[in-house]
Here is the input.
Amino acid sequence: MVFEFKLPDIGEGIAEGEIVKWLVKVGDAVREDQAVVEVMTDKATVEIPAPRAGRILELKAAEGATVPIGTVIFTLEEGAGAAAAPSAAPAAPKAEAPKQAAPAAKAPAAPAAPARDAVITPSAPAAPMKAAPVSASGKVLAVPSARAAARELGVDLQQVPGSGRHGLVRKQDVQAFAERGPAAPVAAPAASAPRSFAPVQIERTTSETRVPFRGVRKKIAEAMTRSKYTATHFTVVEEVDVTQLLALREKAKALGAEQGIKVTLTPFFMRAAASALQLYPQLNSMLDEAAQEIVTYGHVNLGIATDTPQGLIVPVVRDVPSKGLLQLSAELQDLAERTRGGKIKPEELKGSTFTITNAGAIGGILATPIINFPEVAIMGVHRVMDRPAIVDGELVERKFMNFSLSVDHRLVDGADGCRFLVHVKRLLEEPGLLAL
Here is the structure.
C-alpha cells in the first residue's frame, strides 16, 4: 500500500514551508516516527517524522523548494511490499544552485532585499480571486514575503485577494493590490524604508565556494532587514564593574556543580534585566500596527540569542522574575543544548518580550544589536576586561563589561533606555541586590 505524506500544518498562520534537507533517500526503509525531512517556516526549523513504517518510494520536493501546506512531499510503501522496493533508486533532486549570489547592499544604510523577493515572477493566470482566507485565529493565510511586503507598502492583508492555493496571499498579490488601489492605513512608516535595487550579481572566479542562500541564514537576513527598517533604532551603552559579580558566580558554580547544573553569567543578566523591565515596562512592550495600539506585557519572557551551527536562534525562557538563579541556569543549559542540536520545539521559540544577546565569551568589547522585532528593545553583553579603577581613593585592578541597549525609538525614549541600564548596572555591581 502506497502512503502519500502531505506537509502538515506546523504552526498557526503558517501557509508554506521550505524543504531544507532530506534526511533519507529513495529506497530507504524508515521506522515509524523516524525523522525524514527538515522543514523551515518563518517560525522555526523542524524535523518531520514518518507517520508509519515503510520504504521511501519518491521524494516529491527538492531541497530549497518552498511548498504550501497540504502538498504531498514524499510517498512510502507500507507493509511487506516495502521490502521489495529498489534500494538504489536515485536520490531526491537537488535545487539548482543560483547563478547569482545573494544580494548585498553596497551602501550600509540600504541593504537589498533577499534574492527570492528581489525578482518578481508573474504567476500563471488564475481563476477569479476572492478575499484572503483566514485561520481559526483570524490571521490571514499569507506567505512570509507577502506579510513583509504588506508592512512595507502599507497594505491591509485582509483586503488582498490571494492567487495561491486555497486563496493563499503571495507577494505579487500584495504588490498588485498596492498598485491598483489605495492602501489601508497602518502604523507610522519607518524613518528610512529600504529602496528597491536590482539583484547584485557577483562575477564567478576559479577559487570560490557557492551554496544556496536559504534556510536559517535567509530567515535571519529577512528578520534583521525587517527590524532595521521598521524599528527606529537607538543604542545606549553603560560600563559595569562586575568584579563582585564574578566572585559570586564562582560560588554559584560550585553549588550548581553539586546538582549537575552549569552556572554561567547569563542568569544574573536575566534577573537584572527582568527587574529593570518591571520597573520600566515600556521596554517590555510591542506595537500592534494593525490596531494602532501599544501592548505592554505584565509578564517577562526573555529570548536568549544562541549561536548554533545553523545560525542565530532565540529560544525563550518564560516568567523569569519567578525563577531563581539555579533554576534559570538549568533551563538555559537544557535550551541551549537542544537548540544547538536542532531539537528545540517551535513553541519554545515564540512569546519573548525582550531579548538578551551575549557574545562576551567569544569577544568584542561593544556592539549595537538589532532588535528582535516586534519587540522594542534588546540588550547586548560584551567581554570581561581588566581595567584600572579608583576605589576608596586607591588605584586598583577591576573587572569591567560593556552593556549596550538598542531600543525602538518609536515607543521608547533614550532617557528610559539610560534609566534601564543604570538599574541593571546597580544590580550587577552589587549582586546581592538581585535577591531582592
